[in-house]
Amino acid sequence: MLIVMHSAARSEQIDAVVAALKNSGLNAELLPGSERTAIGVMGNKAFVDEDRLLTMSGVKEIIHVTKPYKLVSREFFPEDTIVHVKGVQFGGTAKPVHIAGPCAVESREQLFSIAKGVKESGADMLRGGAFKPRSSPYSFQGLGEEGIALLREVADELQMPFVSEILSIEDLELFEHNADMIQIGARNMHNFDLLQRVADLGKPILLKRGMSATVEEFLLAAEYILNRGNKQVVLCERGIRTFEQSTRNILDLNSLALIRLESHLPIIADPSHSAGRYDLVAPLAKAAIAAGAHGLIVEVHNKPSKALSDGKQSLDLERYEELMKEYRNTGKQEVGSEARAKKTGMKPETSQAVFSSS
Ligand code: PEP
Ligand code: MN
Q1: Are 231 and 314 found together in one domain?
Q2: Whose CA is nearest to atom 9 of ligand 1?
Q3: Pocket of ligand 1 (CB under 6 A)
Q4: Deepest in the core among 228, 292, 321, 333, taking most CB within 10 A?
Q5: What's 337's DSSP letter?
């Protein structure tokens, strides 16, 4: 339930409503917005005396939220959430964010050459898996901790933030101290313990849709994170399983467009894992942006035929450059402390806290 206050409601009036709810044993959360302040009442079994609430000064209306997800919904927060990863901004009217890099980190040379190439083509962020959720136990499982160290080193050298997938709560500390953004992959979207433990780190999270998850299940997974007090969540449509076998998955643009309406959280698209083949990546990428995606995450390899994972769907550096020509005139987000300083008008070293990712 949502108690919407008049736009002119004074803070004492808002506080009085919150106090009345708490006195009745209800959980009330203040949801401030630029147009209105609302108070969310969630997960409560206690009786709500709506008639009394409606007579309190400053109260405009009571809305019954029928959707099972609350904090991620536009009913609760009508305005777009902006997620900050160092100087990169996802959501709202920010330019689409371009994340690119290898499926898996394989070596320093491989990572550096790809990161440098994608940066030159206009990528804003680097991706790279160090802990790989492979279907077969015999496939390359990633470099683990060493992979994260390489990502940190290369990201710092090239001044571009990175995102990498966490598989286990055993690695929380490693990611807390090293990652700029933490990915929860399709296979772990339903791992609610992991979602909550990662949420508690307070870092930005890239949450990928499970390959058989409905929109409702996807948004409820995000709800687990917001419910822990972390609003820095970017959703990712990465393709779903259907009867169609001719491509790896189906990029579900219906759901992407629907989620833009339903939720205030930014959503990006992963055309690489959807397609499973490099020659479908560019058309799917363009379709996703046209459907309203706030960015793309694309797998790129310097030698796709030698890649230790997902080579078939990886663009080489030339093909990535070709794709990015489409977007270069829409501009590239500036990253690093200089960009933050420009935005905040503060000195580079003091502007860090304003845009810090946690
Ligand atoms: C990945 O991004 O490397 C990955 C494994 O993706 P997904 O979880 O979407 O399969
Ligand atoms: Mn991959």
Answers
A1: yes
A2: 186
A3: 103, 129, 133, 165, 185-187, 208, 238, 270, 273
A4: 333
A5: H
Residue 116 phi/psi, 5-degree rounding, is -65, -45
For ligand 2, the distance from its centroid to the CA atom of residue 5, given in whole angstroms, is: 46
Task: Name the band, by pLDDT with cuts 50, 70 and 90, for residue 346.
Answer: very low
| pLDDT of 333 higher than 60 | yes
Q: Is 162 helix (H, G, I), strand (E, B) or coil?
A: strand
Question: In ligand 1, which atom is closest to the CA atom of 239?
Answer: 9
In a domain, 75, yes or no: no
Structural domain count of the chain? 2
Residues 19 and 128 in one domain: no
CATH code of the domain containing 242: 3.20.20.70
- Quick one: pLDDT band at residue 331, thresholds 50, 70, 90? low
pLDDT tens for 186-203 read 999 999 999 999 999 999
pLDDT digits (tens, 9 = 90+) for 67-76: 999 999 999 9
Which whole number is the average pLDDT over 115-119? 98
Closest ligand 1 atom to Cα of 309: 3
Name the residue range of residue 217's domain. 83-344
What residues sit around ligand 2, an ion, with C-beta below 5 angstroms? 103, 310
Q: In sequence order, what are the beta bridge partners of 183?
A: 165, 206
pLDDT on residue 29: 87
Please give the C-alpha separations between residue 278 and each of 101, 111, 124, 309, 317, in angstroms, as whole numbers: 14, 19, 21, 13, 12
Distance 310 CA to ligand 1 centre (A): 10
The span from the CA of 25 to the CA of 4, in Å, is 19
